[in-house]
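User: What would this chain look like folded?
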Amino acid sequence: MVDCKLADTPMVMNHGLQILENAESVNQTQYQRLVGKLIYLAHTRPDLAYAVGVVSRFMHRPQKQHLEAVYRILRYLKGTPGKGVMYENHGHLDLHVFTDADWGADRDSRK
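Assistant: Here's the prediction, encoded as structure tokens.
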């Protein structure tokens, strides 16, 4: 993917990724390796957290559309070098977190 076209965002809006019947399957081992590396990277790249979470749901049965979503994340990474969170030791362990979840939009389980 050296000469790939860069992506502005890690995932398209309203992606609609789900497991489809009769869809083309891909190499599960390759998919799991790629997503595993992205999960590790997402600890310092919060901009990837949602996209990596979505593609990791399909590790048991990856299809072509899921691999294309992973490739989009890689194209986004190529266009955003040097971004990320630097964790430093400030002598305290205070952590403040805010989140907003939309569980109803999960088409697979609605959980």
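The helical segments are 28-41, 49-56, 64-79. If you want, I can go into more detail on any region.
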